[in-house]
Design goal:
This protein is α/β, with parallel strands linked by helices and 242 residues long. It has helices at 22-30, 52-70, 89-102, 117-133, 173-181, 184-189, 196-211; strands at residues 7-12, 34-41, 73-80, 106-109, 149-153, 165-168, 216-221, 239-240. The protein is built from seven helices and eight strands. Strands 3-2-1-4-5-7-6-8 form an eight-stranded mixed beta sheet, sandwiched between helices. The structure holds zinc ion (ZN). The site of zinc ion has 6 residues, from helix 4.
């Protein structure tokens, strides 16, 4: 039977955070599914040399290019202030609007215990928004959208994250790393502590070792509502377990 085409949407705090699952996004895109990236923050504080006002369009352009390499669409950024993201009603509203416009089957966001405030707040806001998006009385201006699955991606360093399932991304790892390189300003900024792109490769290699493949990305499913984690749906054929 032919596999149903699905839409997977990543909602993350900053451009480049999609690298926590961009191999999976590329995998869906190369298999004819739809992958969409939405960024919450303007990410204006991601440089010590480029002024914030100048950095916003640069990071937006880099994100657009990175998405293109993955074969994904870039929804845009939701305009939140970098390092000050909170799971406010206003942000949940914006995320619900994005979900209702894109109408994804699957949403992926940060794990709620990731290392940084913007990631944690985005995780909370997305978790709330997925349920609100489904309720016809929540902001009835745009018709409600049912998200079938909500997953959380690995943390930035893999710490404090006990994966429930893995996706083998060996065949798209090079695309993923090329996409990450498109975030040129961040390769410089985050690279102060070492090689940003190489660190991601090592991370994926480590996750791959856990399940017996070259490169993998790790995930958890939400525990908030059973219907959102009932089965792995379209992920099923890609999943690797130890
Ligand atoms: Zn981030």
């Amino acid at each position: 039977m032919k596999e149903k085409k699905v839409c997977v949407m990543w909602i993350g705090a900053h451009p480049d955070d999609e690298s926590q699952c961009s191999g999976t996004l590329a995998k869906f895109a190369t298999n004819g599914h739809r992958a969409v990236i939405c960024v919450v923050s303007k990410a204006e504080k991601g440089s010590l040399v480029i002024p914030p006002d100048e950095l916003v369009p640069i990071r937006d352009k880099e994100m657009r290019e990175a998405a293109k390499i993955l074969g994904a669409e870039y929804y845009g950024n939701l305009g939140e202030t970098d390092l000050e993201v909170s799971a406010t009603n206003e942000l949940i509203h914006k995320i619900v609007k994005a979900i209702r416009e894109v109408r994804p089957d699957i949403v992926i966001t940060h794990w709620e215990r990731d290392y940084q405030r913007d990631h944690i707040s985005t995780s909370r806001a997305v978790t709330h928004a997925v349920l609100c998006a489904n309720h016809p009385l929540y902001d009835p201006g745009i018709s409600s959208a049912i998200v079938q699955r909500l997953y959380y991606s690995d943390t930035a360093s893999g710490l404090d994250f006990d994966p429930e399932f893995w996706i083998d991304v060996s065949d798209v790892e090079e695309i993923k790393l090329k996409s990450l390189e498109a975030h040129e300003s961040q390769v410089k900024f985050m690279g102060r502590a070492g090689d940003f792109v190489e660190a991601r490769r090592i991370h994926d290699r480590f996750r791959g070792l856990q399940v017996g493949c070259r490169y993998a990305e790790a995930f958890k499913a939400t525990r908030r509502r059973s219907f959102l984690r009932a089965e792995l749906g379209p992920f099923k054929s890609l999943v690797r377990m130890p």
